Amino acid sequence: MKTKIGVLSAGGDCAGINSAIHWLVYSALDKDLVPLRGTMFKVLGIMDGWKGLIEVKPEKKTSLAQWTIDLNMDIVRTWDRYGGTRLGTSRINPFAPEDDKSDLILENCTKLGLDALVVIGGPNSLSVAYQLYKKGLRVVGIPKTIDRDLDATDYTLGFDSAVNTITQDIDRLRITAGSHSRIFVVECMGRSAGWLALEGGEASGAAIILIPEHDFVLERVIELLAMRRKDGDRYSIVLVSEGAKPRGMEPILERRGRDGFGHYYLGGVGGFIAEEIQKNDMEVRYMALRHLQRGGVPTAYDRRMGRKFGVASVDMIVGEDFGRMVSLKQGQVTSVPLKKALDKLKLVDVEKFYDTKNYKTLDQIV
Ligand code: F6P
To answer: What three-state secondary structure class fits 246?
Structure first.
């Protein structure tokens, strides 16, 4: 018996995706496991996420070569050590009300002979996977997003690498901030979740951390900075999440328009804060880390988790655990229904983790 697995990555790229694909292929094509599994696997990589499944014309050889790739151990051998996604990605919503492509995707999956589809995605891409599952597609999800805002899992691929990048970048800024006795406002990503700011700020010793889950008061930020200066601190780092906003204001948007899932692009709150600080006679510089924090090589942790998630996705296909997502729970790899992971976003529990008076992480024993 032969089983054909399709695999795609969709939504924002991040470190760890390639590791998941590498280990998915290594596990699926492990000859020693064939007798135990009672089936031999083939793995078909789909290029550019949902776009590949929409654009591919399975009956045409050139189209197949453009949008799909037969994956084997030789091809993916070195992928685990690279960031981003070798399969490419896109932010297309196949269920867009004005242009619903979901039936075409189902048709193409059948024509490609896919028995199961592994979707490496964040909340948006996995919600597409879930809707396709409800329409009959046998899907398994692997969680990835630097925002770590997916519920029902303690980890999403890419988060650790992004936190490491934030930490290293702030280390660099601390050097120049210290030399010049300046304040640096650093803006990181995260959409409506403050995890990147909170943990990046913890790791890099940011003086002030601003997160979307708690609206800040600008006067208090300035007061805290002035207090630090009075106390003799040469410099201060303010790390602000792109979705954080001053009390009474709307989130600041980077540019007009929305992505395929209706989200506005966030960005610019750091620049706004820096201008306000400058008005108070403090020397300040602003830096938005933007996509720097999504690139770079995966950390050891992301490679390991990519490995565990990739292998688990094949085990789930063997066990016919469809409509579910690989999940890390208290250090153990398990699986959860996609629906459960998508019910709500996982946001920072302010009471547990955030000092709302001093705008920093709450360091306490629970
Ligand atoms: O969801 C991941 C993320 O990096 C967010 O933190 C950020 O708001 C968004 O993607 C940026 O999207 P794009 O890569 O499309 O500009």
So the answer is: strand
CA atoms within 13 A on the CB side of 154: 8
Residue nearest to atom 8 of ligand 1 (CA): 191
Residue 143: φ, ψ to 5°: -80, 130
- Per-residue pLDDT tens digits for 14-68: 999 999 999 999 999 999 999 999 999 999 999 999 999 999 999 999 999 999 9
Q: Report DSSP letters for 21-80, one per residue.
A: HHHHHHHHT-GGGHHHHTSEEEEEEETTTHHHHHH--TT-HHHHHHHEEEE-HHHHTTGG
List, chain by chain if needed, residues with CB within 6 Å of any ligand 1 atom: 12, 91, 122, 145-147, 189-191, 242, 266, 294
- Protein residue whose Cα sits closest to atom 10 of ligand 1: 12
Question: 319 C-alpha vs ligand 1 centroid, how far in Å?
Answer: 33
Return the number of other C-beta atoms located less than 10 Å from residue 346's C-beta.
18
Instruction: Report the predicted TM-score, pTM, of the whole model to 2 decimal places.
Output: 0.97
Atom in ligand 1 nearest the alpha carbon of residue 259: 15
Question: What does 147-201 look like in DSSP terms, one character per residue?
Answer: T--BTT-S--BTHHHHHHHHHHHHHHHHHHHHHHT-EEEEEE--TT--HHHHHHH
pLDDT tens-digit series, residues 207-221:
999 999 999 999 999
Q: Which residues are the active-site residues?
A: 147
